[in-house]
Structure formats: C-alpha cells, structure tokens
Amino acid sequence: MACDAFDLSLYLILDPDLCRDHSMLETTMAAIRGGATLVQLRHKTASTDEFIALGRELMQAMAGTGVPLIINDNIDAAIALDAHGLHIGQDDIPAAKAREKLGAGKILGLSIESEAAAGNLDPEIVDYVGIGPVFATSTKPDHKPAIGFDGLARLSALCPMPGVAIGGIKGPHAMDVFKSGAQGLAVVSAICGQPDPELATCELAKTISHAQQQISAGKLA
Q: Cα separation of 61 and 52, whole Å?
C-alpha cells in the first residue's frame, strides 16, 4: 500500500482492556463494516511475539477490506507482519530511523503535542501526525497535558502533512476537529467497549461525513 493511500477521517485505535466483551478482532471487523477508515493495533503490555500473533490475525481478517492496519510503537512487529504502517511517539524510535527500517512504501505516523515537535517534522519521512491529547483520557494515563481545540488548530496549522485529532475524541467533537484543520478523529472508547461497535462506528461515520460536508459548504457554525 502506497503512503498516500489512506484516509484518516475515522481512525480506530484498539484498546485490549476495553475490548473485553468484543475481542479486538471482533471490534475491528465490526468497525470496518461501520465505516472505520484506518485501524491501529495498540497493546502496551504485549510481548513482540504476542503482538505479531495478534497482528497476523487482524491482517488476515482485514485482507481485501482496503483498510490499513497500523502498528503502535513496535517496529519489529510491524516489519515481521509486513503491516501497512507504524505509529510512534516522541519518545520512541526516531522517525528517520523508523522510516529507514520500514522503507518508503509504508505509512509512518508520529504523535506531536507541541510547537517544537511540529517544527521538526519532515514530510519526506512522516506521512501523518496524531495531534493531542485534545482532552485528558483514561485510555492513555501517561499522556501529555491536554491541548484543547485551540492547541489542535495551532499545531494543525504548523504541520506540513495531514493530522488526526486524538485524546478523548467523540462523535460530537467532529465539527470542532475539522474546523481546527485536522483531517480525522482518532477514537478509542467511542468504539472499543461499546455494546454494538458496528452501530457506534456507523453513527460516528455519519457524524463525520456531515461535518465534512458542512465544512466544504462553508457552514462552520
């Protein structure tokens, strides 16, 4: 999959703790049916072998859907799986090194939360950025201070590549996210742990589509 062949608008980040009633595989496939455009496998406590086993199961199930699978942090698992891409944070492997190891044909995402980080971005290396946290969130207790929509707009304007808003993002935030200049919503609990993940995703997708249409039509209220 080429680096430009992805859609950030409805970006699902899997959480193993929230996916108790519906497994990560079940949640992923339900979300894809509902309209998720990209899926990230995040599992902070899994070993690389466990990560690869989970990723392989997801890759096989997602084959033919057109939805990319992004691996969080674990570049060894991403390479072993031949996953569509990798997402890293500021404290993980340097972006240039990650790109060198991944190769040019993979998607590389990077988390940013400050003007300094935005100023160091190289669009020849990084394909998209995760901007946030917009709000504090219990799904990532070690996150940096929340930046709000003002911070999202400020950082989006500084980034030379597409950005996705992350951190406590829910459907009702869609209009504010797009008004801030981001290209999508990265969600966790809005889908993971919901009684009906497919329905939850479908409702999110409709809300996102409506917000995009309003933005395109210049109706920003």
A: 14
CATH number given to 10-216: 3.20.20.70
> Residue type at 120?
N
Q: Which residues are annotated as a binding site for Mg(2+)?
A: 73, 92
Q: Which helix (H) or strand (E) holds 198?
A: helix 197-216
- φ/ψ of 107, rounded to 5, equals -80, 130
Q: Is the dihedral of CA 105, 160, 113, 179 positive or negative?
A: negative
Given the structure tokens 């199961």, which residue do they identify?
57
To the nearest whole number, what is the mean pLDDT of the chain?
94
- pLDDT tens sequence across 30-63: 999 999 999 999 999 999 999 999 999 999 999 9
Question: pLDDT at position 1, please?
Answer: 37
2 token code pair? 């080429």
What are the two backbone dihedrals, phi and then psi, of residue 178, each rounded to the nearest 5 degrees? -70, -35
Residue positions forming the annotated binding site: 40-44, 72-73, 92, 111, 137-140, 168, 188-189
pLDDT digits (tens, 9 = 90+) for 141-158: 666 789 999 999 999 999
Q: Print burial letters for 189-205: b (CB count within 10 Å at least 16), e (below 16).
A: bbbbbbeebbebbbbbb
Average pLDDT of the residues in 53-81: 97
Pairing of strands 85-88, 107-112: parallel
Are 112 and 87 contacting, i.e. CB atoms less than 8 angstroms apart? no
Structure tokens at 141: 């207790």
The domain ranges of the chain are 10-216
